[in-house]
Amino acid sequence: MPPLFLRKQMGTDMIHLYKEKGNCCGCTACMNICPRHSISMERDARGFLYPVIDQKTCIECGACVNVCAFHKTEYEEIIPKDQLVYGLKHKQQEVREKSSSGGAFTAISDYILKQGGTVYGAAFNEYFEVIHSQAVDTKQRDKMRGSKYVQSDLGNIFTEIKSVLEAGKLVLFTGTPCQNGGLKSYLGKEYPGLILCDIACHGVPSPKVWEDYKVYLEDRYKETIQSVNFRNKDSGWRESALKVEFDKKVYKKNMQEDPFYILFFSHYILRPSCYQCVYTSFHRVSDITLADFWGIENSHKNFSDNTGVTLVLSNTGKGEKIVKAIWKDTDIMETSHTAFYQPIFETPSKASPRLQEFWQVYETQGSTTAIKKYGRLSPMQWGIKKIAVPLLKKTGLYNLIAKAYFRFR
Length: 409
Ligand SMILES: Cc1cc2nc3c(=O)[nH]c(=O)nc-3n(C[C@H](O)[C@H](O)[C@H](O)COP(=O)(O)OP(=O)(O)OC[C@H]3O[C@@H](n4cnc5c(N)ncnc54)[C@H](O)[C@@H]3O)c2cc1C
Known about the structure:
alpha+beta; eight-stranded mixed sheet; three-stranded antiparallel sheet; 15 strands; 19% strand; disordered N terminus; binds flavin-adenine dinucleotide
């Protein structure tokens, strides 16, 4: 039985959309489907958007409850029979440098735009907030390139996508698995013109912590932020860094040094639903899945490249058609499920054991104190990330050990 259902409370019939915050991924399907526009997305104290029902205008039709897709599906086989696996590098070095992995998103979206289609994806607005937006040309699309490690605000984009599809147009939707799942459920039927593309996602950080972090950096540098790149590749794909350009100064720190990255990877600031994500499976919700091809240096040394390689899972016939269509713009090779290391296809991210402590400090002592206190590695974590992991990667043992750790932890 789904965890969300109509409940009687306080003697009146009222719809409750989720039991606890971990049951809501914030996909907006319920808000978009409401026939009375009675649902709005409102921020909680930690900065995540949750649906709130206006009980005065709600007609209790239950559409919002039924559309919720955040339920775990169990599958008999671990790997779907028809899923194909590829390693992909965009032929243009410049595209790879501006993308998080190998630039598959650019190749796919180029193909859609050339067909007169519309692309939806996550981009920064002028305040460096992450929002889902629409692109009908490459200039608009370029803003969607690269990972932004913050939960994106979808606004009313599902309703907009539906009307574009109803007009018979081709649409590429890109986003997290839960955003893809929400859109699919909201649409409620197959559209031949819709291509769903999800990214491997180990969790989305709080937009509020990101806002506070921007203020923290601006205070430190006494200048205004002009650009942000979460996956700067000056030191290579494997050593990606957060690069923030101010009016004159530049901040650049890698994943082991930047406090926001440390809070992200230590799993302090993810949305509560990420710790119980229902999409951590090889059975994908979309036509095509993109991820970093971690482990390629061991499985395909000659194809490996430190400007980035995208792991592409082709999940459906539509996905396979896209892969064939982008063949000429990319270097692509077919491979197998044993060639990469990707724990998020097997199990959700585990919350930091100090999660509650972090948020308590954040809420009572302020963001700067919390960022300074928790946004740094302990000597033990530093040793593991800076010394042990690179050593294990060189010897080729890393994939094996990491896989075993994630399976049995
Ligand atoms: C929050 C987050 C967590 C991730 N976790 C993993 C992981 O655990 N393992 C892994 O291999 N890869 C992860 N990735 C995905 C990976 O970094 C690349 O996005 C992916 O490999 C595609 O790279 P590309 O070079 O083909 O294209 P790119 O140009 O890098 O792709 C950009 C695409 O990502 C989408 N996107 C960017 N930011 C967001 C966002 N905040 N919300 C929704 N969509 C977004 C854009 O819409 C666009 O479609 C994560 C990305 C994000 C945003």
